[in-house]
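Dear colleague,

Following up on yesterday's call, I've attached the two folding results inline so they're easy to grep. Please treat them as preliminary; we haven't cross-checked anything against experimental data yet. The first protein's sequence and structure tokens come first.
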Amino acid sequence: MDQTVFQRHRARLIEKMADRSVALFYAGEAPHKTADQYYPYEANRNFYYLTGLSKPNMNLVLLKDQGRTFELLFIEETNDYINKWLGRRMSKEEAAAIAGIDVKNVRYLTEFREFIATSLSNNRRALVQKPGHLYLDLFRPKADFEAVSLRLSRFVVDLYPEIVLHDANEFLDNMRLRKDPEEVVEIEAAVGHSRYAIEAVMKHAKPGTNERELAGYFEFMLRQHGSEGNSFNPIVAGGKNATVLHYEDNDKDVPEGALVLMDTGALAGPYASDITRTFPVTGRFTPRQKQLYQLVLDVNKQAIEFVKPGILMADLNKYARDLLAAGMLKLGLINAVEEVGTRYYHNVSHFLGLDVHDVGTYLEPLKAGVVLTIEPGCYVEEEGIGIRIEDNVLVTETGHRNLSAGILKEIKDIEAFMAK
């Protein structure tokens, strides 16, 4: 994306920050795995949102004081050893061009602590006089984990014990919820990668194929199409396995006559898609499979049509749940609407963006620019049938746009495609 997108994001955040404040963001690094092995690096999503940079070991500093604002970026300084063993690091000029930050304000990490100590003080030459507020990404994966940013920024608190800590996510969650047009383009690209790979897997699948082979083939086709890979651990479930919502074993042979549920996603840069399609491994649905599949498909399409600005996620979930309950009653899957949870045990939607389950509040009405999923399901364990159909939908000023409308989901279209 163009650097103006990230400049715009930083400007929005700075506008919300209090006077005499500093905000620190960290790109992160790959966590240690075992011996000399590391997990794949994933850029901190807030850092990327503000800079467009997806390399590890970088710091962003935003300062605001009496109407003046400053943006500084700290990056790794390369050397001959790093170049030979790990590859050339990004230069100041390259980082500045991507982030849209003046190259004079791009420095090396070795200068970071000294900069903080001298730029935030009572000294008249300091960039922020008597800093009163510190904004950090205080996300913690678990209640007993300390936020990484707080651990790395503790020296700032030690230098200025009177400073007030703020969670920058209080601003960034709402900012990230409504996508810029450029971000929607990236999500659409991720959806396009998913379409290519899903269609390839449909062609490749046959009875007896192992789920891991289908999962591996999906990722291979993603990368062939230009994607960075899976946006989350894929769920490729044949038959009864599809009745487990977050089935990730992907290690069983798909039985003759079974349905295959693929809940998968692709990346375009760090932006995610999240698509689920269910198809018969033989290429043709049985009458019973058609009956249940059509129920889920009808609810999928009706729920998409329900999406518009002003509704609550709770409204959307209730609407889909009521439709599923009515359909299940008609088919004899349940005896009372209260039993719908035995056949459908998740919500119909979540936000989508830089994260598969993206940030944002579920308590406020939907607004234009929000991207969400629509994913009704029906799970009948005793019949070995699990069905989910998931699309990615953009809320527009006048309603919605289904970003994944081009991915096969009608029974006749799936059967015709797999018969070719």
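Below is the second protein, in the same order (sequence, then structure):
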Amino acid sequence: MLLLQSDFYSILKETIGTDEPFVLCTVIETEGSSPGKPGQKMIVFKDGSAKGTVGGGPNELMVIKMALEQFDKQKPVTIDFDMSGDKEELGICGGKCKIFLELISPALRFFVFGAGHVGKNFAEFASLYGFNVTVIDNRDEFLKDFSPKINTLHSEFEDAASKLDIRQEDYALVVTPEHSKDYETVASLMPFKPKYLGLVGSARKKASFESKLQEDGFAQDDIAKLHVPAGIYLGGKTPADIAIEIMAQIVAFKNGKLISYNKN
């Protein structure tokens, strides 16, 4: 899609203001009669749609294909196109060009189900770490006095997942005040397959929940991704200690390290 530069930057600004990740593709260098020109840009979305252009033609289709890989790889890459061969065979202009691909992601969303002492402490830590945090609770008095950057939602725990449009790149922690509410909340979140789903509890609770989830028809692969007890054991006793233990696991998880709660 060919756009005036001013129009493209308006679209870019609007896109950055949403929660949707995208790959920004920029022509950074050309040689010869390359169809793309330095500075031309294109936005590629996760569904394969695109806005802007890096020159059109078969190479642009290849850029879109490689841009889609960045949603998993999450590492900037520069790709080179050499179109100086047989132009008639290639069906494109000659020349060479380099295109820089960069994944642009908004702050990752973290949903904390429970605004008690552990939930409140954890929400503050997660917000400081850079997550876009929303705390959910059905008790108005517990949703007060959070930092301005933290969102709050008054809702029944088991109803909130559908209201929040949970996505697979989201993180969630379940720490409600009741055992039954914990299970209902976990069960409501499972179909959305959040990237991280943690539950505060004991090893006995883990076994109980896994058994019930299996009875209720959830896939074993999905059940195995539930982190319970959430956190890394550091000997913590206070709500702040426990929140730090959970945050430590999140940092490790986000950086590709799977560390489970282990008292040994």
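For the second protein, one point worth flagging: Residues 86-91 have pLDDT under 50 and may be disordered.

Best wishes,
A.L.
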